Amino acid sequence: MRKLPAAALLAALGLVTCVAHAGASLLVDDAGTTADGHCQLESWLRARPGALEATAMPACAWAGLEYSAGASAYPAGPGGPALYAGVKHTLVEMGERAPGLAVALGGDWRRRDGGFDAATANLSTSLPLGPRLTLQANLGWRAPHAARGRPTGGVGMEYRPDARWSWLAEAYAEGGGYRAVQGGLRLHLPDAVSVDVLAGRDRDGRWLTLGFNWSPGDDG
Predict the structure, then answer these.
(1) 20, 68, 125, 189: which has the fewest Cβ within 10 Å?
(2) CA neighbours within 13 Å on the CB side: how many for 53?
(3) What are the Cα distances from residue 100, in Å, to 93, 186, 202?
């Protein structure tokens, strides 16, 4: 477990207006962070009927904190690009039989004029249910610009039958009625590379996601 004095953690969190896991090809975050002195990249293409999203989310870790900053582009959309920034700290690292716990804070800017869109906070846990099965659970808060904040939550499962493949399934919800589900496969490749192929659905319709991840600081 990486340890950090409480005062230093609070000071670092104060650097970001309101913080959380900025985004990923998955809807539900895990409790892990990349190792200190390492960087990682999460990126994905998400296609809906008549719409396309391209996102890159690099992150680097230092002194027990993982800092992320990224952007999404919407070639067919009128709103312009979206920007993200966040910070995450693993409070307890997951063991073979012990759950992990992490806290994350973040903000995003989605308006064409660059105005602030929303702030988020998230508490995530990773619970090993066996040598091949892991449960991820999130509980958080989203505060949109000029609107009432609402709770968020999600549950995800990863089943890894062998070293190369994982089956993924998850559900996400926000106060106010938003719901989303997603599932698919992850292919684990050499050199800390993985590829996700996912299908999901929410109130706006269905989507397909192709994700590319690179995490050289991940020992798993």
Answers:
(1) 189
(2) 22
(3) 5, 21, 29
Supply the DSSP string of 27-65, one letter for each residue: SS--S--PPTT-EEEEEEEEEETTEEEEEEEEEEEETTE
pLDDT digits (tens, 9 = 90+) for 34-63: 999 999 999 999 999 988 999 999 999 999
The Cα 13–Cα 11 span in angstroms is: 5
Contact 34, 67 (CB under 8 A): no
Confidence of residue 175 (pLDDT cuts 50, 70, 90): very high
Distance, in Å, from the CA atom of 64 to the CA atom of 89, rounded to the nearest integer, reads: 6
What's the pTM value of the predicted model, to 2 decimals? 0.84
| Distances, alpha carbon 160 to alpha carbons 54, 133, 216, in Å | 27, 6, 19
- Written as six digits, the tokens of 203 are 């109130």
The residues facing 146 across adjacent strands are none
Q: What's the CA gap between 4 and 96, in Å, rounded?
A: 23
| Strands 100-109 vs 39-48: parallel, antiparallel or unpaired | unpaired
